[in-house]
Amino acid sequence: MKSQLPQVNQTLIQVALGEKPADLVLKQGTLVNVITGELNKNIDVAISGNRIAYVGHADHTIGPETEVIDLEGKYLAPGLMDGHMHVESTMLTVTEFARMALTKGTTSIFMDPHEMANVFGKEGVRHMHEEGRKLPLHVFTTFPSCVPATADFEDAGAKITVEDVEEGLTWGGVVGLGEMMNFPGVVNRDPLMLGVINATLHAGKTVTGHFPDGTDQMLQAYLTSGANSCHETITREKALEKLRLGMHLMIREGSAWHDVKELAKVITIDKVNTDQIMLVTDDIYPQTLVEKGQVNHVVRRAIEEGIDPVTAIKLASINTARYFKLADDYGSISPRKVADIIILDQLELVEPTMVIADGKIVAQDGKLIVDLPTYEYPDHVKDSVHVKRAIKPSDFIVKAKSSTDRVTANVKEVIENSARTKRTQFELVVEADQTIVSDLDQDVIKLACLDRHHKSGDISVAFAHGFKLKKGAVASTVAHDSHNLLVMGTNDDDMAFAANYLVELGGGMVVVENGKVLAEVPLPVAGLMSDQRAETVVKQVNQLDQAWQDIGCQIHAPFMTFSLIALPVIPDIRISNRGLVDVTKFKFIPVIE
């Protein structure tokens, strides 16, 4: 159990006065002061238990048993805090994510486990939350708000009710409501959406937001509901608009979308006050985590774009703590605060040589030096892929409604390094039996979404553009946010083979060609997360990435872009198990005009 201030403040007072020795003293560091924006040289930090007792010249706190570390001028920065992220996107369990993230200087995350919630509801959230509570990484949970993301357009494995949210907000470590993605529902005063928002407001906790696009009136209506942040902003103009209205801006740098370059301009050019700006990852895949880092990578990118290093660290520490009403305990190196500290040789690189979390040294020179507890998910959480019957190639046939040799299709066009899509149209050839065929020359291939939760037999088939596949097929049970079974390919036989293979595998991602598996990433935990070490998953994902290239796709992180094409809350056009959705108008549209 992590100690609270009233339990230890008497001891902290005694240590600060020199009446009791500190447990650990960090000597002669350069303090990254995110409160004042300064670099304070020759600073000591005395730690007692899991909290900071003294900042300054701390010789008087050193006793015979005190561990003393001379930093020789190295930088002392607060542990980094990721204000919005989904652990499931790393394809790792919370424990395995923590194993890697702690070495990167992340000491706190605010996870929104709505991917797990879409498969196993409140129970799934509880599993991830409890797993996180046992770790040296501070795992704060924002309880999922929109499960499914839009009840009118898709079928998830579970639903989250107002009562679920009310209960979840009573769990220790749940600090707010997960991203309120159904912004049209909020604006149109949907009782469920307002119900979960109001439950959070009544609990005195934070309502995190999601507002990718809309009119000024919609934005302000959304803000008046109580949702007050957004990580979906991609332009400088929209960032300024939101900040000027009092919205908290979360600047995202994930694996598939890179927003720091554009949004850093509100700081470097527009010179806005930075108190309501945070740096977040949202979704990163395991290669990014292992090879580039976690929120430290986002901080480094901010510095590369011209943001002052102290300010950049502020955006991933005290600002995040303040937003979630936790600044009394977290976010800076100050007396009484929880001792979450990273030691940096070079400020601009943000590569910690030592990480202290909850008062203990947990990582040194890029390696974890503490043991983490194991967490076992129950068997039924590892048995989450349920279809009505084996998938047949004929399930993917699309036919014209009348005799014709050509039709106009509404096609989903993906955008590299973006969560957004475009609605576009192509003419496709119709064969003699009225079967509509893909057109590889135009880069138009079949795309399908199959119910994998309820054995309903629902299968919707449409067309996609932008992946440039030349052969084979791909499939995934990672399909934000309802996580049904997505299949895409150049021929019906390989699409059926890929779908059936994933069903037998119990979930994950696969690339196939001519009835053979080229690469796979097994994800047995809810069809979303691996039970393997990060290094193993990285190797599997690298092989998957290569297999995508081998069948023709050259875009960056194609499997992540693919995993988002069933998310009917981000414009313009999405596929669900029920059909093709125009997100700008929030209605189903025909595949063939």
TrEMBL record:
InterPro entries (UniProt xref): Adenine_deam, Adenine_deam_C, Amidohydro-rel, Metal-dep_hydrolase_composite, Metal_Hydrolase
Keywords recorded for this protein, A-Z: Hydrolase, Manganese
Name of the top EC class for this enzyme: hydrolase
Occurrences of domain Adenine deaminase C-terminal (ranges): 420-587
Keyword Manganese included in the entry's annotation: yes
Catalytic reactions of this protein: adenine + H2O + H(+) = hypoxanthine + NH4(+)
Keyword Lipoprotein: no
Family: Belongs to the metallo-dependent hydrolases superfamily. Adenine deaminase family.
Protein name, entry field: Adenine deaminase
Organism placement in taxonomy: Bacteria, Bacillati, Bacillota, Bacilli, Bacillales
